[in-house]
Amino acid sequence: MPVPTRLPLPLLSFLLLIVTALLSLLLGRYAISPLELLHFLTTLCGVGDMPVERYRLIHSLLIDARAPRMFAGMLVGAGLSVSGAAYQAVFRNPLVSPGLLGVLSGCAFGAALGIICQWQALPIAVLSCVTGLIAVAVGVGIAHLFQTTSILLLVLGGIVANALFTSLLSITQYLADPVDQLPSIVYWLLGSLSAVDRSTLLIIGPVLTVAIVLLCLAGRAIDALSLSDDEALSLGAPVQRIRYGVIVLATLICALTVSLAGMVGWIGLLVPHLARLLVGPGNARLLPVSACLGGAFLLAADGVARSLSAGEIPLGIITELFGAIAFVLVLHRVRRGWL
Amino acid sequence: MTLLQAEGLGYRIGERQILEDITVNVNPGDNIALLGANGAGKSTLLRILLGLLAPASGQVCLQGQPLKALSRRTIARHLAYVPQSHTPGFPFSVSHIVAQGRLPSTGLMSAPSRTDEEYVEQALADLGIAHLSARTYTELSGGERQLVLIARALVQRARLIVLDEPITGLDYGHQLRLLALLERLAEQGLAIVSSTHRPEQAQASANRVWVLHEGRLIADGAPAQVVDSALMQRLYNVSVRQIDADGHRFFIPCRVPHQ
Predict the structure, then answer these.
(1) I need a surface site. Which of A6, A96, A177, A284 has the fewest CB within 10 A?
(2) Burial of A134 (0-12, 13-18, 19+ CB in 10 A)
């Protein structure tokens, strides 16, 4: 149920994202005060007068370490959430998550393959992205073998693709060197933002941003699909084009997030529910709000991941732990209506 | 001018012939009841008329233009579809569902304008369900949902509304009110095609009846001429007694033969 207020919730969720992003820049093992940030920024623009030593230190902290991590976190959280929300709408099922059609297991296999081939970070990211797309293509292809392309067949195709690529992943894990490669595969599967570097982000970030914005803009078209296909068609909506458009965008988004941060679970299922609780199921509002809340949630989880202990806890563990608890609370609130 | 014209429609699934050589037309002001036994092809015919299903043979023309040459959006500005009431996966508000009727006019990318919202309010008021506007669609009763879907069709400003068994599942009062509503819409110049399992609906409310039997159109005419005890026997394999009184025709089942 939407909260019965006239609060500008989309705006508030955007503000929440900005605040979380600022906090994730400032907080850490070495905290920076807001004043210092301002001082640094003015110096960066050439009008301030920060001492050179200090300027270098903060420059390396912010620009080299925390800013890429912050942008990556925002994009990964927003991407997974918005594609989860869009998937739930076009598959007309609130329990669907972005991995439905096999994209995540495809990505995982690609990354594991890259690791046992001892590739560098960027080629691994690219391979992971490509295998993710292949996995979904396999799932959709299987659905198309049977002429009529219903939602049910797509889901079944996705199950087959998931099983196939999970088994391929197992083979690579079995073949991996247990001393060196297997731990990095496992660590990678747990998800983390610690490996994000600026060059990878500069390539992946813009594509991810564009895909997220496009998906958010399609809200009203996606709304038409959350009723039956016949109804959507008779309202003038090109059902197949919208459904496959969403699948392509959401798959691309998921694959890119995995290539940035590995497997970060639960966000794509949890955040859309949370957003729906706040602004209702209309996708024109739901998608942008999901994106903002997802970005904020992931940044918060990352904050916890890097500050709980000296050695960093993998991000995926935090999101699954807090996600599972939060999901129960959300379900408690939304028993009416769609469950 | 004829609004919708279908010629020689045929449809088959595998070896099974569902529809065969059906030629019909729909004019403004028609309130057509589509009668037929289960499996006679009623839903298939409605879906073909709406352009949701391509016929195996023949074609449907909207004001002289073949449906398959028109975009979905153009079709949607002329034909509206009211499905049997259903439960969507998400708790949309009533006003949100009805506002979707504006999609063919506004397009898929733009937000509804103030005028669109007025259309929605007007349609809800016309159907006497303005009080439901802020309610959640999934929490309504079957009769209320049916009215909401009809409101969406009105907001669509279509000239032909196709309803799939609109009174199935409604209580007696809701059935009568819904039929009166369809009559009123037809008097205003809209065309209505609704499939039904109740010959009484065809008899009392419609001004034209189509009868489908084993995939063929066996009658198309005024209810008084078409719907009689002989038809009941042929369509449903039951004998009924027909009583004409006070300008109405009643059917009383005599004896249902054992299967």
Answers:
(1) A6
(2) buried
Question: In this structure, how many other beta carbons lie within 10 angstroms of the beta carbon of residue A90?
Answer: 25
Domains of chain A by residue range: 9-338
Helix axes A121-144, A198-217, angle to 10 degrees: 30
Short-list A60, A76, A9, A42, CA closest to A297:
A76
Q: Which of A91, A215, A234 has the highest number of chain B CBs within 10 A, making it the mutation to test binding with B?
A: A234
CB < 8 Å from A in window 205-224 of B? none
CATH of A9-338, one of 1.10.246.90, 1.25.40.10, 1.10.3470.10, 3.30.1380.10: 1.10.3470.10
- Total-model pTM: 0.87
> DSSP code of A32?
-
8 Å CB contact of B91 and A221: no
Amino acid at A92: R
* pLDDT, mean of residues A324-330: 82
Q: Predicted ipTM?
A: 0.88
* Contacting residues for A311 by C-beta, under 8 A, at least 6 apart: none
Residue matched to tokens 């196709």 = B162
Question: Rounded to 5 degrees, what are φ and ψ at A214?
Answer: -60, -45
